[in-house]
Each structure stands twice: as structure tokens, then as C-alpha cells.
Specification:
The protein is of the alpha+beta class. It has helices at residues 2-9, 39-43, 46-49, 87-104; strands at residues 15-18, 22-24, 27-29, 35-38, 105-109, 117-119, 123-125, 131-135. Helices cover 26% and strands 22% of the residues.
Length: 136
Amino acid sequence: MVIKETLRLYPPATFVIRQEDIDFKGIMILKDTNIQIPIPILQQSQELRGPDVREFPERFSNEIFEACKVPQAYMPFGVGARICAGQYFAMAEMKVALSLLLSRFNFSMSPAYFHSHAFRLVIQPEHEACLHVKKV
């Protein structure tokens, strides 16, 4: 649940690009037209996610289908025919790494940390993130 919520807020990619003929609400978009889908905007849309979009509710407790009005809007690894082939391996790897880290260390953010993310090739902190680590 924590991993899925983190991927919703900070997806690995900022855009998905599609190149195909599509009829979007009566507007014909031709195959050679690039369509960039801004994943973070979809992931944080109050219209799609509900009024608690900025909070950390247990939205993924019953899997993705109940986490959003439109399940296809959750796309940290892409969506459709071009979805990332390694997504299941990446999720398993994240779960193992996170469980090993949490079993051996305690983490806390520096009180001076100011949260602000920057959209570049990937989403990253705009300011340095000072993390305090203590061995358990």
C-alpha cells in the first residue's frame, strides 16, 4: 500500500507518449501527432482521486480498482499495450528492499526539510533531502 501510494505521488516517469489515431471527444488526433500524458497530474487529480488526494488514506487497501474512479489513471509503469514489462519484478524488488531496510534501520527526515519536487526527466526533490538514519 505504501509503495503504490508513493508511486502515485512520485511515478518513475513524468510523461507517457502515444502515437496513434484516436477520436478524443469528437476531435480526431492523427497517428503522427505526439500526445504527452502527464502522469503526475493524472495521479494527483482531485476529480479522479477524490477530496483526499493530498492525504495518505488507505486508498490501495482493496487494490487499484477501488483507489480511483478510473483505475486506468493509475499508471506509474505506463498503461495498455506499452506497459512496462518489468513492473512486477520492480514491485517485488521494491518490497524486498524496503522490508530489509525497515527491519535494520529507523529513518526520519531532517526538521529543516522543505518538501518541494521538481519535474525533470524523473520526479526528484527540488531541494536536498536530509535523511537521518539510525541502526535498529
